[in-house]
Amino acid sequence: LELGGLLLYFTSLLTVAGIYAVIALGLNLNWGMSGLFNVGIAGFFAVGAYVSALLTARPVDAEAYAEAAVFLGQPAPVWWFAGALVSAGAAWAGLRARRGLPHREAAERGLLALAVLAAVASLGAAAMTLRELTLASPRAGVGGLGLPMPIGWVMAAAAAALVAWAVGRICLRLRSDYLAIATIGVAEIIRLVALNFERLTGGAVGVRGIARPFEGMARPWGEIALMLLVFAIVTAVYAFMQRARNSPWGRVMRAIRDNETAAAAMGKDVEAFRLQAFVIGAAFMGLGGALTAHYLKILTPEATEPLYATFLVWVMLIVGGSGNNRGAILGAVVVWIIWNATELLSGYLQGLGRIRIPLELLGRPDELVIDSVQLALRIAYLRMFLVGLLLVIVLQRFPGGLLRERPPRLAGERG
Amino acid sequence: MIDFANEYLIPGLVLGSIYALGAVGVSMIFAILRFAHFAHGDLMTFGAYVAFAVVVAFGWPPLAALPFAMLGTIVAALAIDRYVYRPFRRSRPIVVVIASFGVALMIRAVVMLVWGVQPEPYQTGIQPPLETLDPLRIQSKHLVIFGTAIALVAALHVLLTRTKTGKAMRAMSDDADLARITGIGTERVIAWTWVVGAVLAGAAGVLTAIDTQVKHTLGWDLLLPLFAAAILGGLGRPYGAILGGFVIGVVEELSTYPLFGDDPLVSPGYKTGVAFAIMIVMLIWRPQGLLRGRLL
Predict the structure, then answer these.
(1) Closest chain B residue to the Cα of A195, Cα to Cα
(2) Alpha-carbon gap, residue A26 to A45, rounded angstroms
(3) Which candidate from A177, A307, A382 shows the least CB-CB separation from B113?
(4) Cβ contact A299:A210 at 8 Å
(5) What is the pLDDT of residues B60-119, one digit of tens each?
(6) Which positions in chain A touch B270 (Cβ < 8 Å)?
(7) pLDDT digit string (tens) for B195-243?
(8) Which of chain A's residues have a Cβ under 8 Å away from the Cβ of B273?
(9) A246-254, long-range: CB within 8 Å, 24+ apart, which pairs?
(10) What is the DSSP letter of B125?
(11) For testing the chain B interface, which of A392, A394, A397 should be mutated: the one with the most B CBs within 10 Å?
C-alpha cells in the first residue's frame, strides 16, 4: 500500500469508528447508565438513516418536483416544516400550561387543539407532496426534497426519538428480557418497512445519490474534513453525555438502574425517567444512522442489518466498558479496528492462488486443493465468530470492560 | 372453502408445527434457566445444516438425516451451556442474554464458514401435490413436516408426563426454588432442558429447510415468531408453546387473506409483523400468556 492509499484507509477507518462511537454513546445512555436493554439499535439507526437520506437527497426529477410541490410560491417541504414547528411549539406551550393554575385550562385546551390541527395539516401536506411527487414521476417518491444536510440530521435524530417514544410508551414497563424481545421486534418491523415500502424507501434498491459532506473537495482533503467533522460530533455528543452523567438526572438514572424500587420509594417517576433515557439514546442512534447514510452515499436495507447496526455496537460498549462514556468511544475504535484487521488478512489470502495440501498422511494419493479466493471469502465470516467470542470472553472474565464505570463523586464524599 | 384450506390453512398449520417445536425450547429455557435464549434460532440453523451435510454426503432423504441433526444440535447446545452459559449461573440473567447474542453470532459464523452463504434446497425438483387427497392439495413434504412435528410433540408429552426427568422439568419450570427444596438436581434438569430444546430446535430447523431451503439466516428469521409463540402460550408451559406456535403460524398465513376486496389483508412482506403485533398485545394485556405461564 502506498502512502496516499494508507492515509485514505485510516481516514475511512476512523470516520466509521467515530460514527460507531456516536451510536455506542447513545447505547451507553440506554444500557450503561439506565439499564435499558435496547437490542433494536438497527431500527432507530434505520429510521435516522432513511429520514435524513430522503429529506436531503436531490430531487430525482427536478421539473416534476418544482411543479408538484410548490404552494404559494414556497416549496412544500417548507410549509410542512413550518406546520410541524408550529404544532411542536403549541404542544410545548400546552404542556407548560398544564403545570400552571387550573384557570389556564381553557388556554391549554385551545393550544392543544391548535397543535393537533397543525400537526394534522402538516402531515396532510407532507402526504400530499409525496403523493404528487410519486404521481409526477414513479421513482420520484424516493427522496428529492433537497433540504440542507444539518436539517436532515436533526430531523433524523428527531424521527428516531419519536419512534423510540412510541416504542418506549408501550414496552418500557416490561422487564429487561421482554424489552429485548420487543425492541428486536421493532427493529425487524422497521427493516420490513424499509424493504417493502418501495415508494418511500426504494425497497431493496434503496436510496441513491445521498450527498456527502465536503465531497466537492479534492481527494484526500474532503475525506479528512469529513473525519474531523465526525470527530467534532463525537466530542459534542461525549460532552453532552458526560454532562448528563454528572447531573442530578444521571444520578437518578443510576439509582433506577441499580435499585428501581428504592428510586420509586424516593419519589422518582421511574417510568418517565426511563422513557427520557430511552428516547435520548435512540436520537443519537438515529443521528448515527444519518451519518452512515451520508458517508456511504447509498442506503439499502442491508446497511441496517442487525449484525452491523446492533450487535457490533453492543460488543463495542461491553468491550469498552458499559457505563463509561470514554469506554464507549474506546470500544468503538478498538472493535472496529479488530473487525477491519480480518479484512486485511482476507485480502492477503486472496493473493495466494490455489493452496495444495498433500493428503499422504491420511494414506490418500490425492491432494486437497483449496481455492484461496474462496478461503478468503470464508475468512471474512471468521471475524463474526471472533466478535461473538470476544463478547462472551469479556462478559465472563472482564465484566467491567476496558474502562470501568466510575460514578461521579457525590457532594461531600471524599475521593 | 377448499381454496381457503389449500392456500391459507394448510400452510399455516405447517408453519405452526415448526414454530411449535422451536417455541417449546424457548419457553422451557426461559422458565428453567430464566433467560431469553436469543441463540435458539441459530441452533435451528445449525441442525438444518448438519442434516444438509448428511444428505449431501450419503444421498439420504432429509428425514433420515433428522436423527443426526438432533444429535449434532444436542452436542452443540450442551457444549455451549457448559462453556458459555454455566459460568453465568450466579450472575444477573440479563448478562446471559447478552452472551446468548454472542453465541448466536458464533453459531452463524461457523455455519457460514463451513457451508457458505448460498441458500440450497435439500432436494431439487418440484414435488406435485398428493393426488389421493383431492380436492385438498397437500404436498408430501408438508405432510412429512406436520407428521414429524406431531410425533415429536407426542414424544415430548410422554417425556413430560411419564418420566421422572420430565416431571422434574415441569416442577422446576413451575417454581425453581420449590423444586430445589424437594431435592431435584438443578444441573441435571438444566442439561435435560438443553437436550429437549436442542432436539426440538434441530428438528424444527430441518423441517423448515425441507419446506424451503437451508440458509444461514434460517433460524434467526424465525426467532421473533418463536418468542411470540412462547409468550402467547405462557412462558414455561410446553403445551402453551405448542398452542402458541400453531396459533401464530395460522394467524400469520391468514393475515394475507383478501378479506376486503382483492388485496391481501396484510401484504405478505409484513407477515412477521403479525407475530410481533400479537406478542406486543399479549405483553401488555396478558403477559402471563394463554395458559398462565410464569412472569419474570
Answers:
(1) B269
(2) 11
(3) A382
(4) yes
(5) 888 999 999 999 999 999 999 999 999 998 888 888 999 999 999 999 999 998 888 888
(6) 189, 192-193, 196
(7) 999 999 999 999 999 998 999 999 998 999 999 999 999 888 899 999 9
(8) 188-189, 192
(9) A246/A408, A249/A273, A249/A276, A250/A33, A250/A408, A251/A410, A253/A33, A253/A34, A253/A277, A254/A33, A254/A407
(10) S
(11) A392
Regarding beta strands A70-71 and A74-75, do their DSSP bridges make them parallel or antiparallel, or are they unpaired? antiparallel
CA A358 to chain CA centroid, nearest Å: 49
Interface A-B, measured as beta-carbon pairs within 8 A, has a size of: 123
Give the mutation candidate from B85, B98, B276 for the A interface (greatest A CB count, under 10 A). B98
Q: What is the pLDDT of residues A226-284, one digit of tens each?
A: 999 999 999 999 999 999 999 999 999 999 999 999 999 999 999 999 999 999 999 99
pTM comes to 0.86
Please give the Cα distance from B47 to B72 (Å, whole number): 7
Chain A partners within 8 Å of B272 (Cβ): 188-189, 192
The DSSP code sequence of B228-256 is: HHHHHH-TT-HHHHHHHHHHHHHHHHHTT
HEC secondary structure over B136-148? CCCEHHHHHHHHH
What is the Cα–Cα distance from B31 to B242, expressed in whole angstroms? 15
Query: Considering only CB atoms, which chain B residues are within 8 Å of A396?
Result: 84, 87-88, 99
Q: Which of B27, B105, B221, B227 to mutate to test the interface with A (most CBs of A within 10 A)?
A: B105
